[in-house]
User: Fold this.
Amino acid sequence: MPITGQTLFAFVDLKDPFASGEVAGEELTGPILSVMGARQFNFLFLFCTPHTRENAEATRREAERRHQDCHVTIHELPVSDPKDYSVLMGSLARQVREIMRAAPSAKHHICVSSGTAEMRAAWFMLTVVGALPATLLQVGTAADPLFGAANVKEVSLDSPDWDSLRDLVMPMKFSTERFFRRAKKEGQASVLASKPSELQQPVAFLKAHRKLADEEEPVQLPFPGLEEALQELEIHIGSSALRLAAERAATAAPTEFPVLLQGETGTGKELFARLVHRLSPRRDRELVPINCAAIPRELAESFLFGQVRGAFTGATEDRKGKFEHAHGSTLFLDEIAELTLEAQAKLLRVLQGGDVEPVGAVTVRKVDVRIVAATNRNLLEEVRAGRFREDLYYRLEVVQIQLPLLRERRGEIARLAVAILRRINQRRQHERQLSKEALRRLEQHDWPGNVRELSNVLERSVLYSQRDVLRPEDLLIVEEALGDDPLSRLPEPDAGFSLEKYLAQAREQLILRALSKCNGNQSAAAEILGLSKQAISKFLKNQVDNQG
Assistant:
């Protein structure tokens, strides 16, 4: 059959044809159906391996049901290991070559959001060497896999925005046209003599002409490695404010400037310190984190800068401080405003020249340390109050990154909650979902503890809920009463209000919170609530029976 019109090539994923979501009642279209929902195709070529054969058949049936004018074929690759590059590329290239012979005038597209990383890289290789000239289509990113037609976007090989291509595991691009133009200029006859059939074996072709390929100019990514680092550190970016903070961290990371992270408790300051370190030249050494608020004030200097024997009562031996332990790496000073003025003076000396002066020493020691500091206070106000050195402040504020509050980005809360729940489910045998009503309750909360509080609420709610689908009353959110009146948050009675139902839900929540506070100890929870242990046991039994 002649292949004409619009074609789509895709590896079948375990998320095809559908993927279950973290929101109850929500079934997401997988990568392939998402792409087909965004554009019209005349031919769909589904590639699979033996372990995704059933997914391929189900995807074919659903694609034919939804798009009756599209001709769908399945091409199974005899590959036992879908991560084996050589076998995968050889088998895929042969199948693609057969299809291309019957499609001299078709316009080709590739879904690069399905399959293993090796499969996505294989598509990219076939495209850039000209074996399969095609438009690459992506659904969300590997770090943020959003499905649905609205999230389908085109990947441009010539665009300066290379964020999406980072997920394709390909560090360098070169075009066939530019490749041959350069070969002609340098007189490399072996390349100029290459036949079209050689281009259909990209691995062998690139190996034969590796020198010329290696000399191609590398792609200058705006923020190299940022997407990979965000995914590794589980930093979910869902707002422009947080994206700006992440890009500032990526910009500052390769430099030696100190970085000052500012934001309320729970906004992710330590995660951003790790992001700066992860993207810096010091990434091969472990970051050394210090909570300055946890250091006894009288021991702060010894703890940070070290000591010599006999420096003070109890100093029975020489001891290195954290600065020397962090030599060649990054030192994260959390809650830096808690340091004494004396410790601040010594810190200033380190920043100025890398000089560490242990307590009781007559000489200084040189260290090579990158400083990332964090605080939830306004340091300028601390300077005006005489609690923070002005000269140290101006040493630290070269690069300032303000982390946004969660309540300032309410539109992100639902997606962030789903992402956190997805991580929780990965550790559990039985997965949980959030009802849409539960999501609405999360969006309405002010989150004084920011992302950390949201994560803690979901962790304990999943732990203690007996339901697979969490309802609003299953969310163990500690609501602080306004002012001194503990009854100020009671609901206003209105039509349809049920006092008995409200009291039952309040009782259920208080018992669950008491159990959470007591780490599941029924006797301790009963004592807090003024109930008998039998009452708690009966409550838990009823919870289980209601689920049955």
